[in-house]
Amino acid sequence: MTALLPASNEEALRSAALAVSRAVGQDVFRELARAMAAILGADLAFIALPREAGSRRMKMLAFYADGRIVEDFEYDVAGTPCETVLGQQFRVYRSGLQELFPSDTDFRRMAAQSYAGCPLMDARGRPVGLMSVVLRREMEHPELVESVLKIFAARAEAELEHRQAESAIREREAQYRATFDASVDGMAVMDARDRIVDANRAFLAMFGHGREAVLAMAPKDLVPDESIATCSQVLSAAGEGKVFHGECKARRADGTLFDIELRGVPMHYLGRPHRLVIVRDITERKRAEAAVRESEEQYRAMFNASEDALILWDSQLRRVDVNPAYERIYGWSRDEVIGNAYEARAVPQGYAEQRLALVRRSLAGEKCRVEFESLRKNGERFLAEVATIPFLHRGEPHVLTMVRDITERRKGEERLRQSEERYRLLFEMESDAIVLVDVETFQHLDVNRAAAELYGYSREELLALKSSDLSAEDDKTRTAMRTGASFVRVPLRYHRKKDGTVFPVEITANFFDLRGRRTMLAAIRDITERKQAEEARGRLEAQLRQAQKMEAIGHLSGGIAHDFNNILTGILGYLTLAAERQDEIGDARLGRHLEQARKASLRARDLIQQMLTFSRGGKGVSRPVEVAGLIEESVSLLGSSLPATVELATDLQSGLPAVLIDPVQVEQVLLNLCINARDAMKGSGSIRVGVHSAALSGVVCASCRKKFGGSFVELSVRDACAKIDPKVIERMFKPFFTTKDAGRGSGMGLSMVHGIVHEHGGHIAVDSSTLGTTFAVYLPSLVDGAAGREAAPLAGERSRAPRARLSGHVLVVDDEQVVGNFMSELLQGWGLDVTVQRSAPEAAAWLERRGAGVDVVVTDQTMPRMTGLELARRIASQHPRIPVLLYTGYAENLDDRLLAGAGVRALLRKPVEPDLLYLELREALAAAGTSTRAARRPARRP
Fold first, then answer.
1. 697 φ, ψ to 5°?
2. What DSSP string describes 570-622?
3. What CATH number is attached to the domain comprising 16?
4. Which residues are within 8 A (CB) of 809 and not within 5 positions of it... i.e. 6 or more apart?
């Protein structure tokens, strides 16, 4: 095609604006493609949309080629310049199109040399298609092409949005009709003049009329005269914007009447106010209610005719009914007892419990019959025969109690008998020391066995003493005795035992008249243990406050560690990508630099895992470790924790057996011991760290005080501080113990060392003299007496083998942009199509719309609003064929059962290791039916 470009850019833009304004009707996209080709002098011009959501295959809305419209043309964007435009941004390739995209057979067949494309987006910024022009020559004015394309793209996007809105309206109308006709209740729509303008199937079937007949009726035609008022009230309320319920009669087409429930709801129909009337047939319900009423009337007649008192109890131990005989026998009216068990102030507690126990037994299915004394409202007692029977009442478990008076009314309440045996039993059974004292003379009138045991006197000796003889201080109770108070509580006094021992007591005294004399009954309690407990409580509260501070620090460190994990994921990932690129260029020096950066990142990852383990109270992962090599690496990191005035030296024996321990916790032990040495030397001196083999026998551990022996690897830290007090050594490993000033230390460092070492079966020795102090940690050897065992490699230290390219569509879900970008670039480098979502709810919504094209979902666990595990559960229920890979920085709370229940195929730790991720993806894709294969196009290069 010859160039038809106008003489100036302004004229081209005016032509474009005129063309988009004229393009209307069903052929608008064809007109846009034809005008775009004419203005830009293009050989090809087309507008394309994905064939279906998430598809990479495009269907042409309009394809204009060499002066004619081509119908029903489709193509795959993979390996074409359109792939770089779809869902991204405007792209232009001025020349060399076939060399840049050798796999694009369509453009090669058309001898295309230059290309320009603009993405099409909907109102929410989501990609919906693209618009492109192709020339068989070099493109001379790319800026003008971009401006013209964007003008046409804006018109195409507006037309697409308009057509999508019309489609949505049609869909909503179809949904309304489906919901309307599917309702089991009868529904009719009425206008402001009370005319029926629509009715569903249930409404037509309920009244027995055809649709045309109903639409010609008014509501009054469907109800008898006595129901017209109720029907009008429902419609009037709906017309005023209210919802109103009513019950009335209705008439079917055959003239029979039936009961209905009416409900009027205001609504808009075809853009105008209408009313929706919902009709429910309640004829059977009315019949059932009538039958129940008849049955209850029969029950009430028999219930009220009984000469025995009848009480009906429900499962909540409440009286729900009593008969007239009950009112006559007990003196309580029906209104006074219905709805409760027993009034606590009306009857004794034991009385109520005895009778409620019978009701409970019958609720469990047992029939009971007993005889006991009952109580009338006026306080009179009578002997009663009581029977309880379980039965169902209105479908719920109830108990019917029948009470028959089998004695004449007994007179008044029995006076309580004063029994010496009863008094003596209660007096002697009291655990506190009880003394009865004459207020005038302070002489003991009586004492119990507990008083004799408390003071060490015999009962006879105590009776010969006065109350003042037991006090170790001035008797402060005398003032209370003289004032005539009826009750005195003395919270703290000191008394003396027979052997002279002074102890704290608490005294409670009641004053009353006995045989005409003022008498005091005093209960004396030894509170020695309570005072000791209160003192211990004070110490524990101080320790608790310190523990709460440590917990807050743990939460803070956990939050920081989580953020660092996300940062390290990006760092380690991009180092992996850089290493793969370095393998291609063969720069050995660059490879060494990248490997050192990778090792440093792995150490940072381990430290972060330690922070997470500390903050969540979890345990580390033990594995065989060669301690000397680990300590050699760790010492270099101690510089930030030690001042320049502290000299750090090492003495590390090589070829030692490995020990089974978490390497991060070994570093934590070393760090705490070195910080302890630094503080002991007040920040100035020398610290010597050593690792040696040790064969011991009969050595006593300084922290657990047990003897131990065997073959060990010894980790020692020696400082130059003064000799430690033996009393301090005995307590130094206890939590919160510290010799530092307040606010200078938590007292948890050596306690953590004790916990880590003993958790791994080790012990600790402390050697302190005037020349310095050595802390020696002994860890059991894995190979007894053997040397040279190599520790297992650190996680992530594995060789990188060439990887086969993968094929499939992966959805990555991560709220951290750096992680999402890295994962996208990494997976695309392996040949995968990648979609990234920044939150789990957005990913779930996206899957609901476009999940058909997704092969695997890779998601983070810790995200706002919805976790990765919750997203996995939703995917398992809605898209069970899609496998889910979950990664997290802290997986201790995610057990296998929980993961399997959520449909998680594999769990990866953050920072994500690309090698492990590749293996899991390959297996997941194979399981999903997408096998690995050679890529159909070369890897994209920057």
1. -155, 130
2. HHHHHHHHHHHHHHHHT-HHHHHHHHHHHHHHHHHHHHHHHHHHHHHT-----
3. 3.30.450.40
4. 54, 832, 833, 834, 835, 853, 854, 855, 856
- For the chain, what percent of residues have pLDDT higher than 70? 81
Q: 905: which 2 tokens? A: 């195929």
Helix, strand or coil, per DSSP, at residue 96:
coil
611 in a structural domain: no
Express each pLDDT in 406-421 by its tens digit. 875 444 334 434 556 6
Q: Are residues 368 and 251 located together in one domain of the fold?
A: no
List, in sequence order, every residue forming a beta bridge with 502; answer none if it has no partner.
496
Rounded-to-integer distance, Cα 285 and Cα 137, Å:
83
Q: What is the pLDDT of residues 748-767, one digit of tens each?
A: 667 778 888 888 889 988 88
- Find out whether 612 and 562 touch, Cβ atoms under 8 Å: yes
Residue 706 belongs to what domain range? 627-780
Q: How far apart are CA 548 and CA 632, in angstroms?
A: 35
Domain at 342, CATH number: 3.30.450.20
Cα 778 → chain centroid: 41
> What confidence tens digit (pLDDT) does each residue in 85-141 have?
988 999 999 999 889 999 888 888 888 999 999 999 888 888 889 999 999 999 988
Whether 847 contacts 853, CB under 8 Å: no
Q: Give yes or no: residues 15 and 155 share one domain.
A: yes
Total residues found in the chain within this entry: 942
Closest Cα to residue 843, out of 860, 826, 829, 822? 860
The amino acid at 670: L
Claim to verify: residue 460 and residue 496 sit in the same structural domain:
yes
693: its two tokens: 């083999």
271 and 231 in a single domain? The answer is yes
Boundary (domain end) residue, out of 493, 511, 526: 526
Contact of 840 with 859, CB cutoff 8 Å: yes
Q: For the residues 215-231, what does the mean pLDDT come to? A: 83
> CA–CA separation, 148 vs 142, rounded Å?
10
What does each C-alpha distance from 328 to 303, 310, 339, 380, 387 come to in angstroms? Answer: 14, 11, 19, 13, 18
Q: Which two tokens stand for residue 881?
A: 């064929």
What phi-psi label fits residue 832: left (phi over 0), alpha (psi between -120 and 50 degrees) or beta?
Answer: beta
Name all contacts of 138-141 with Cβ < 8 Å and 24+ positions apart: 138/94, 138/95, 138/113, 138/114, 139/92, 139/93, 139/94, 139/95, 139/114, 139/115, 141/5, 141/9
Residues 277 and 296 in one domain: no
**Helix orientation angle between 9-22 and 28-40, rounded to the nearest 10 degrees:** 170
Amino acid 677: pLDDT: 81
Dihedral pair phi/psi, residue 652, rounded to 5°: -115, 120
DSSP state of 710: E
pLDDT tens digits for 270-315?
A: 767 888 888 888 888 888 777 777 767 767 777 887 888 888 899 8
Which of 206, 218, 340 is closest to 260 using CA atoms? Answer: 206
CA 441 to CA 422: how far, in whole Å? 27
- Per DSSP, which regions of 37-123 are E strands? 44-50, 57-65, 68-69, 74-76, 91-93, 114-121
405, 439, 458 - which closes a domain: 405
Local structure of residue 892 (DSSP, 8 states): T
Domain match, 723 and 821 both: no
pLDDT digit string, tens, across residues 344-382: 567 787 888 888 889 999 989 899 998 888 888 888 888
Phi, psi at residue 106, to the nearest 5°?
-65, -45
Residue predicted with more confidence, 589 or 409: 589
Contact 719, 785 (CB under 8 A): no
Residue 518 lies in a domain: yes
Task: Identify the CATH number of the domain in which residue 757 sits.
Answer: 3.30.565.10
Domains: count for the chain: 6
Three-state secondary structure along 482-545? HHCCCEEEEEEEEEECCCCCEEEEEEEEEEEEECCEEEEEEEEEECHHHHHHHHHHHHHHHHHH
**264 and 353, same structural domain?**
no
